[in-house]
Amino acid sequence: MKLVLHTFQLPLKHTFTITHESRDIQPTLIVELQDGDFRGFGEATETPYYGVTMEKMTAQLESVRDFVENYDLQDPKQFWEDVFPYLKDEHPFALCALDIAANDLWAKKKGLPLYKAWGLDPSNNPITDYTIGIDTLEKMVEKMQEVPFPLYKIKLGTKEDIKIVQELRKHTDAVFRVDANTAWSVEETIQNAIALKDLGVEFIEQPMKADNWEGMKKVFAESVLPIIADESCIVEEDVARCYGFFHGVNIKLMKCGGLTPALRMIAHAKKLGLKVMVGCMTESNVGCSAIAQLLPLLDYVDMDGILLVDDQISTGVVIDYGKVIYADENGTGANLK
What we know:
single chain, 337 residues, 3-stranded antiparallel sheet, 24% strand
């Protein structure tokens, strides 16, 4: 194999604001694995909140270049296990990009879409939501009207959270999900859940700080809405820890290290009776097309990254009013333009 690294600056269609940060540009790293005429692609984005920079990811991947380029890729799961010891001491974003590229390449060489290579049936795939970032009420309404959708994920974490959802509800009958990005207290979460349920909200994502397990126990017992872990569920070991504290988990490929560990996390969560969601990180179609391969296994998905960025670098899945339409190509279906 040959390892090729591509760096891009993805413009966002709107300034994207959550409680942690605001940004207009999303730097992203595309990993390409070449094997003869076949090309596998994977992606990881720069994420300052987790200390992930383009320079760090590039250095990580350069450190395993010789290993990767001399590896005989027969099974991406085994490849992940073999390369993990070299990358385990750093945040797994770069490992994720490498793992996605390996899965994409493997399925392309088999002549199958990746989900088919895994033996999955996409006939009952969930639809994706569309995210409305924190902004003025007027701007949030404008963003929602700009992209009519059956399902919205609303970023909260302000002093006016209920007022925001009340205002947005005036303009659509769509289902809402809300993500407080760790900004609420225990009592806020319990009280907000009552109001939000009446406003057609499906669930609340990560309302409190990731390490507030005592508070989450109380919320889990008293909330009238399901609570989904995000920041509290990063790596595989966190799935079991979330049992009895959350009703479901949101798995992010970049946070856990790729498709290979995500498959294990999904299986573990289902065994525990937890709802399973996979989320995106405001990435190009390379990353979103990888998420799409997991759809047959999911209860919920948040893979609207390609709708939030001006993706001029890649092709892959298409989203039509929430429905994810696979590309015709094998593997994940993603390619660089």
